[in-house]
Give the backbone structure.
Amino acid sequence: MLSPAESVETEFTAYPRANLCLKQAAETLGVDVCTLYEADHRRRELILIGSYGLAESSIGYRLSFDTGITGAVARTMVPISSKDPMRHPEFHLVEGSGEEKYRSYLGVPVMDFGQLDGVFVVQTIKSRIFRISEIEKLYAISKVVFGDLGMLRSADGHKVEPVRD
């Protein structure tokens, strides 16, 4: 029997296109939004590089490590879950994203050898609490999706490697 991480990797390697990976992640996790931010350490910012569920116009949005719940995930490098993110003290609305309708938030850091590569976020319309098993699954999925997006971006020459201090 495959471990949860191996099972997730097997599921997602069949979907090499980024939008399909994010859509598949949303369906697998039973969430309405999957968003991936890439870390730009030089500017201490996160760049929204892919999303299923948020407005397409939000792609490319830059968020400081010091701004919002997602910035807090990057800053602390620990997952943050909220069943009411708009009441969370770190909440920051990304204007034009359409995220104001979402009532639950889970963000996990995407790391490689102890370095932050990005943040993977899921959101739901219905308020809920994420279980530990879902957080673990999100970690596994985030690595696969982030890796797939990185390969897609390298293949067309647009990949910008995260700058590490």
User: Anything to note?
Assistant: The CA atoms of residues 69 and 90 lie 5 Å apart. Residues 1-16, 152-165 have pLDDT under 50 and may be disordered. The beta strands are 33-40, 45-52, 62-64, 80-82, 104-112, 115-124.
